């Protein structure tokens, strides 16, 4: 038994192109180096230390290192877990190009799978999820993706594999982002799980407003507590303004979204 539904308003975005555009805008302001720790003074973050010992000072520091936030010295231990997964990039032979013109999402034996066409003819197939701590590409995961994709689009097996990505997504205990201030000079933004690119506008906007101490009234009441890093501290639950205590916010992650 099978079925399908067409969703004309469903769109996709290429994270690589988004990242490339951001890098282009920032230009020479980017420093490509590994941050090993936060530099603090009187309980306040005042900069970061790089792996070569260099210290950079800043009025505000944003820790947005995904699943590696806890590898940075000085960052309070965050309840993050690494959710590993594989994504396969394919290219259809000229005889079948374009194989797809819109995103295909499906469930095969209760496993979500998606195939996303890119403007250059490439197809993105994803994505597996595993929490086994292994950073290498899992053969079973690749097999599963190809097998499930074949059920949706049989011609996928006629395509050429051009690249396989294996990365760790940052998951929180409730799979909701962790965004908030950890000291007067530092804001953390992580825990986006499988939905980093989809939640990027919300996450980036809220993180930037917190770092600059701008007005965050644009988010629904209760949102700051819902994503705050201290929400997991049962002994010291986050305080809310009196008028916000009457509201609750349930943040639901979109199903079958991109890694």
How many extended strands?
11
Which consecutive residue ranges, at least 5 long each, have pLDDT under 50? 235-257
Q: What structural class results from the helix and strand content?
A: alpha+beta
What proportion of the residues is helical, as a percent range? 10-25%
How big a fraction of the residues is strand? 25-35%
N-to-C series of helices and strands: HEEEEEEEEHEEEHH
Distance linking N and C termini: 28 Å
Name the overall outline.
Answer: elongated
The biggest sheet, with number of strands, parallel, antiparallel or mixed sense and barrel status, is: 5 strands, antiparallel
- The averaged pLDDT comes out at 89
* Rg, nearest Å: 21 Å
Contiguous helical run count: 4
Q: Major sheet: order of its strands?
A: 6-7-8-5-9
Structure at a glance:
It is built from 4 helices and 11 strands; from the N terminus they run αββββββββαβββαα. The chain is α+β, with helices and mostly antiparallel strands and 259 residues long. The C terminus is likely disordered.
Key terms:
single chain; alpha+beta; three-stranded antiparallel sheet; 259 residues; five-stranded antiparallel sheet; 11 strands; 4 helices; disordered C terminus
